[in-house]
Structures are given as C-alpha cells and as structure tokens.
Task: inverse folding
RNA sequence: AGCGAGGUAGGGUAGUCUGGAGUGCCCGCCGGGCUCAUAACCCGGAGAUCAAUGGUUCAAAUCCAUUCCUCGCUACCA
C-alpha cells in the first residue's frame, strides 16, 4: 500500500464518517460497533500516511426528539443537549477520535449548509411541491403505510388513522435512476460488501420514486430547519441528516476545508440505512453538482440471543455500562473479533469475558508479558543480535512477516476482523515458538542462544505493537512504550531480524475478568 | 408476497467468489507435557452423512437446479 504514493499524492486526505444517531434514544451496541469500525479504519489510514479527518454527530431535528422530550417533560433543546452528550461520552469511552462532532440542531455549523444544499437542488429543478395523501395517526403524530396497520388500525393506539392531505416538497429521485445504477455498478460509488451492492442495484432496478423532503412546520411543532423561502415547511430529517457529511467539513462555512476533504472516502453505516446513503444521498449530491462519496461501508446489526436488540424484548446491552466493566480495549477487541465486520453478530456478556480472558489476556497479553518479563529479569532490558539468526528464528519471523502482509491487505480492504485474526495468529506463533525454544533452560546453559530467542520474541512484540495500533490504542501505546518505539507508519510492523531491542519493565497489557 | 442473508462437531465461526483428502480458529469436553509468564502456556485426542435431493466434473462444503428450515429488510432503525 505504501507503494501507492505516486497516484495518491494529490489526494492524500482521507475523510471518513459515522452515521449520526438519533438523539431520541440512548446509545446501543450498534453505535459502539460503528464507532469502533470507523476508528480502526481511521487509525489504519493514518498509519499509511494519510491525512485523516473523522466526523460524527447527532441527528436532532426529527419530530421524534420533540415527542421523546415531551414524554419526559423537558424542553426539546435540553433533551437533545443531554442525549447528544451521551453519544459524545460513548465516542470518548470507546476511543473514537473525531475531528468534528456535528449536531444537526447547530444553526451556525449546520443549518447554513443545508440551506445551500437545498437551494442547489432547487436550482437544478429537482425540488417541486406536491400534495401528499396518507394515513395519519394523531396519537403517534405519524403517517402509516397500509401494510403497517393492524386490522386497519394504528398498531400503537389501535385507533383508525385519518386520511390526511398535506403539501410537501419532493425530490426528483426518478431522474437519477440510470445515473445511480451506473455509479453503483461501476464502483464509482462502491458499496461494501458485495451483497449490499447487489441489494442496492436490485432496488434501483425496481424503479425509483420521487420522495418527500419536507414536512409542514406545524406538524413538526416548529422543530427543525426551515425550508428556504417557505417558512411553512421544515426540511425532512434525512435530507438534513445526510447533509452533516458536508457541513461537518465546512460546507457553507469553510470552503477551503471543504474543498480539501470532499468527497468522503468512506461513509460507515448500518444495513438499515443503505437506501439513504447509496441512493438518496448520491442523487441529492449529483443534483447539487457535488461529487458523490467513494464508498459506503455497511455493517450488520448486533443481536442478542440471535434477535435484534430491543427494549420490548429486554435484551438491550448498554454500551456505556459494558465499557465501564471491560474497558476500551476489551470492548473494541470483542466487537471487532466476534461481530463479523459486514454481518450481524451476536453479543453476549459471557462471551465478552471468555474472549477477553482467552484471547486478549491468555494469548496476546501473555506472549508479550512472558517475553518482556524474561528480558527484563535476565537481560536487564536489552537484547542484541548482530549476526544472522538461526533456522527456527528466521522461520518464525518470516511467518510473522507473512501475517503482517496479510493483516495489511485485510485492513486495506476494511476486513477488520480478518486483520485482528492475523494479529492473534502472530501471538499464537510467538507463544509456540517461545515454548519450543525453552529459553528458561538455555538461560543457564547457552546464554547466547537464549538471547537470540528473546530477541526474536521482542521483535514479534514490536510487530504486535504496530499492528495493534489501529485496533487497541491503549494496549498499543503501552506496548510501544515498553519497547521504546515510536510508531510512525505501517512499515514499522515488519519484524526486525537483527539489531538491539531495549525494553522497560512491563505491566500486564490486559486484565483478566472474573 | 417481494428482495436479501444464512444453514459447516455440543455451541460459535472461517473456508465457498477462483472446485483438489473435512482444512482452520474460539469456547466446552478428555488425556499428556511444561513451568518463563496474569494457575497462564504448549502438545495430543474425541466429536461433522459441510441442511436435503438431484446434476456438472477425474474430483463438490465450494459450481448449477430444486426443496426444506432460520433470520433480516421492504422507504424516518447502527
């Protein structure tokens, strides 16, 4: 990847986003997963020398926020402030570093950009007014489709919905059908994984209808962004929410930054919102004369007991609590290792414990600790090899080298779980090598040979500290400080075959959990 | 109903695109070894008609067809 330089010089930036969660509910495991995936990709790209920019934020302009606030009898703004904070806390606790956190209620940072985007689409002739007729439940303050009704009644209130007619602005999505199909098909807008791409294509081929992008201000309780030149309407939350990807990097406010960073390199999203990102969003951008994002990376859902987590099933795991119990590295490791990167995966706290204990503590942590402790106790913290290593040493280091390349390939394709599996394989190879080489015997019988073995072990630890950099920031920092290395690029992951490695007295990298 | 994803030892998974001995990983179980390390680690073992049927092929978990089962999405859910 490092050999790519030539073409990438001009576009050495890397702009990645998370979707912005609704503030009307608390953070759940899915948000945690998305934050972690985004952060790993961002940190990896940094290692590859890119100038990385990350945005995240919260979606606050929906009617649901108003309703949820009313239920708790707090002012909507206060409610949003509070809940937005909990997502910031999640980002902090799980180690998602962001460069911009945009709240869609932020008039200065966000609203101007949305207005501008609207106007651009309007000027392209893609926004028009139309009467919309639908089944409306006054209790829910929401429209229902016929298929959603239970015996013709509102599923929530069991009352018959009213037929309500209202005027909305619509976006001429139908006009972009062909262009969208081409974009996706040619990977100009890449949808990952492939199965999601197929899904989007088949959806486009079913025919695209224009969609509503505004709501009457009255029905929105005055909450939300006013439609430019029409105060009676508010911008539909999706049009508004997607714009965050633009306003987060200065659209409508800091053109220089925006020019530098757009288009987005990756939007990380959950499978439930593919349509908005792979269809609506690029269409809106094309209409506004902006470039489309390069890639939409779609992850699955975190389930519990094989089912989607939901409050009614009572199987929701609170990520903030889980983070409190198992720490940033523990939760990151678990989510990346046990939840398939692009598919649904089951979460269980029991599994978190066994995974941390067996793999993190028992395998990776133990290898590092036994190696560094041995060096510290028996070699005063420095091992040196000047000549050539012997067969077994060369063999294990070559093996590690191969795994490093594999991990890099996986990371470059955003196969985060595979990369982590490679890391585990490296630690396992290290453990095996250590065991077979019996340094605890050679330390008295053949000190030179013992030092070669420990040097080899330390070299593998070095590799691990670099590979862990994207995945487990805390552990990587600790380990690199024990090894006195300053991680600058992915190249540092290549194992050393000779030289000197100085080590400090190590503390265990990970704590065993009861 | 339409679209999508799955079905691989007791559980969870990788492998499927690009066919080549059921090959691998984690948990659990059984046995042995080791003792540097956070009572950890290493080695070995038991356990699978790779959902079913039919086909293509010298060869199928892998490709094709059909069937059964599970799950998700279907337009304001990460």
Result:
């Amino acid at each position: 990847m490092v050999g790519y330089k030539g073409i990438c010089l001009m576009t050495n930036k890397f702009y990645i986003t998370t979707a912005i969660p609704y503030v009307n509910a608390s953070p759940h495991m899915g948000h945690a997963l998305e934050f972690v995936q985004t952060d790993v990709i961002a940190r990896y790209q940094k290692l590859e020398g890119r100038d990385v920019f990350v945005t995240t934020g919260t979606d606050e302009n929906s009617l649901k926020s108003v309703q949820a606030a009313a239920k708790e009898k707090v002012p909507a703004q206060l409610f949003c402030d509070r809940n937005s904070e909990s997502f910031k806390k999640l980002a902090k606790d799980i180690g998602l570093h962001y460069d911009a956190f945009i709240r869609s209620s932020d008039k200065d940072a966000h609203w101007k950009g949305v207005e501008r985007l609207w106007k651009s689409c309007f000027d392209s002739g893609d926004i028009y007014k139309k009467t919309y007729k639908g089944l409306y439940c006054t209790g829910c303050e929401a429209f229902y489709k016929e298929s959603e009704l239970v015996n013709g009644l509102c599923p929530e209130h069991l009352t018959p919905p009213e037929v309500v007619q209202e005027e909305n602005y619509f976006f001429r999505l139908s006009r972009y059908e062909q262009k969208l199909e081409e974009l996706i098909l040619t990977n100009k807008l890449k949808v990952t994984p492939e199965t999601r791409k197929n899904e989007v294509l088949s959806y486009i081929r079913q025919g695209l209808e224009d969609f509503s992008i505004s709501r009457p201000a009255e029905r929105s309780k005055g909450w939300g962004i006013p439609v430019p030149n029409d105060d009676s309407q508010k911008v539909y939350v999706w049009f508004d929410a997607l714009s965050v990807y633009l306003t987060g990097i200065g659209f409508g406010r800091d053109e220089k930054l925006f020019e530098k960073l757009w288009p987005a390199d990756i939007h990380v999203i959950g499978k439930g919102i593919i349509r908005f990102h792979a269809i609506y969003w690029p269409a809106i951008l094309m209409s506004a004369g902006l470039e489309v994002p390069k890639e939409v990376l779609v992850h699955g859902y975190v389930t519990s007991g094989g089912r989607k987590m939901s409050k009614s099933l009572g199987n929701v795991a609170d990520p903030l609590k889980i983070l409190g119990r198992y720490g940033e590295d523990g939760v990151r490791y678990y989510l990346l290792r046990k939840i398939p990167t692009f598919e649904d995966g089951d979460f269980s706290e029991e599994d978190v414990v066994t995974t941390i204990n067996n793999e993190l503590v028992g395998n990776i942590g133990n290898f590092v600790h036994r190696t560094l402790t041995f060096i510290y106790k028996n070699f005063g913290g420095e091992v040196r090899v000047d000549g050539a290593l012997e067969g077994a040493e060369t063999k294990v280091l070559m093996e590690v080298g191969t795994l490093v390349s594999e991990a890099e390939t996986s990371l470059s394709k955003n196969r985060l779980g595979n990369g982590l599996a490679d890391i585990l394989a490296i630690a396992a190879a290290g453990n095996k090598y250590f065991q077979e080489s019996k340094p605890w015997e050679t330390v008295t019988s053949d000190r030179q040979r013992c030092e070669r073995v420990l040097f080899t072990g330390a070299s593998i630890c070095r590799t691990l500290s670099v590979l862990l950099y994207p995945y487990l920031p805390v552990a990587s920092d600790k380990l690199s400080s024990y090894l006195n290395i300053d991680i600058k690029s992915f190249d540092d992951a290549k194992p050393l075959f000779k030289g000197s490695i100085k080590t400090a007295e190590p503390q265990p990298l990970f704590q065993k959990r009861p």
User: Anything to note?
Assistant: The CA atoms of residues 98 and 182 of chain A lie 32 Å apart. The mean pLDDT of chain A is 86. Chain A is about 50% helix and 15% strand.
